[in-house]
Amino acid sequence: MDNKDIAQLLFPDVKLSEQEIFDKYPKRKLKEGEQVTRFAPSPTGFMHIGNFFQAFISYNLAKNTGGVFFLRIEDTDEKRRVKDARKIIYEVIDRFNLKFDEYQTFDGKDIGEYGPYVQSQRNEIYKVFAKKLVAEGKAFPCFCKKTEGKADVLKLRETKFVEDDQKEYDPCRDLTYEEVKAHIDNGEKFAIRLKTKNDGSQRIKFYDLIKGELEAKANAKDFVILKNDGVPPYAFAHAIDDTLMGTTVVVRGEEYIPSTPAHLELFEALGFQPIIYCHNPLICKLDENGHKRKMSKRLDPELNMLYFVEKGYPTESILEYLLNMINSGFEIWRKNNPDLSWREFKFGVEDITTVAPIFDIVKLNDISKNIIAKQTGEELYQNWLNWAKELDKTLANVLENNREKYIELCQMDRENTAKPRKDIYNYSMMSEYFGYMFTRPISYEIEKEDIEKVNEFLKIYAEQYKTSLSNEEWFNNVKEIAGANGYATDNKLYKQNPDAYKGNVAKACEFIRVAITGRKNSPTLYTIMKLLGEEEVKSRLLNHKF
Ligand code: GLU
After folding, report:
1. Which of 70, 4, 3 is nearest to 37 (CA)?
2. Looking at the whole model, is its pTM more than 0.70?
């Protein structure tokens, strides 16, 4: 009896041969330079910005070379699987408009020739290769009972390559056919482990597209390739799927570097060409001492891609910010090409950052301000409304019922100006930013000593205010009333003798602005007053709570 018999004993129902599988997944016909990349998220109920970062790199590598970008759902880890998690993956992908060439639709239809694109539907394939490895003596069944008391072996741990100088041979690696049969006859479950060919003394070199040549201790552990429920952990599924699906570059996080030697041993055992890796540094943040630190779920809500959706950032802002992190050359490119889509920015693997990018919300907000500044008032209104429809229904009603008014509000200092205001970076901030449109101010940016001298002026001004004035008439009117009430209408005269006046016209305007909006700075005051209406304006001028 040999290994082939053991393989048959373990997998009597696996009839397909390795060749038959390869026939179903023929080599892709690619033109020179075309890259096949993939996004392979695990449905854990959360889309980490780091994963999305890698997805976006993969997306660009494929698109920039005219290659293929596909989605593979890696849902083999039952324990980590969370209800609705797959939905979240699709939602994020959809919102950020990452178009896949091949994927499985949410309702289960495979688009593309290399599916199923969901790992839990590929178990039969994994078994064929597990059977083959056992038949070739490169893998063996592991029955847990005999390792009773050794919890770590019983747990059928995930492949985590730890660099130590020990080999870790499993006690089951040399079971005879008879022993295996006895376990099987006893109804025992088994896992399959790789029978490592190394003994802890070997080192291997491998090339990483970002890091260059890396050297590490070769794997010397009999790690699990099929758990005792017949499902493979990441390493085995990765080797098989990326080979069959024709991935040319695996873009993944650098946390996978320590397990790469184990992965490469698997490729070799399976007789596959080793895959090309591109391990990316993790996005981090600076702590208060300026040191880089890992982002954490607890401290950093921005870790979750849906955070940006909730905050109402335009997706372009996030994508452009990520491009900035991928390659700092993007910023200059954007300056030189203000009107092109980011899609025109082409980069290759050699341009991807090798250092851990630092997440900086201020930078993101700056990018986003520039992007929103390009929107017309109507576009901004529509985007604000779309955001509110999902996340603030009351606001959405107000916006919808007063469409013209809020479009005009959004148009302020935005259209017909060479320098549009760059003040808004997401849609959720707009209610507060335009807070004076919804409620009267609750605080006022005014100095105590100004309060006494201003009330008389505001009262007189309120009596004469009319919304029907044009912008110019409005300003002349303010000027006239201010002049008659001790404010200088000529700035030169005012500067020569400031003590002779209560202030200049600009100061008078500021008082009106503060009474209306609570703030010393706001977009066009004339428009704000017009939109609030005569009655409301007068009431605010007279009943402010300085
Ligand atoms: N499913 C793995 C993860 O989410 C993917 C790693 C890879 O891209 O190979 O971490």
Report:
1. 70
2. yes
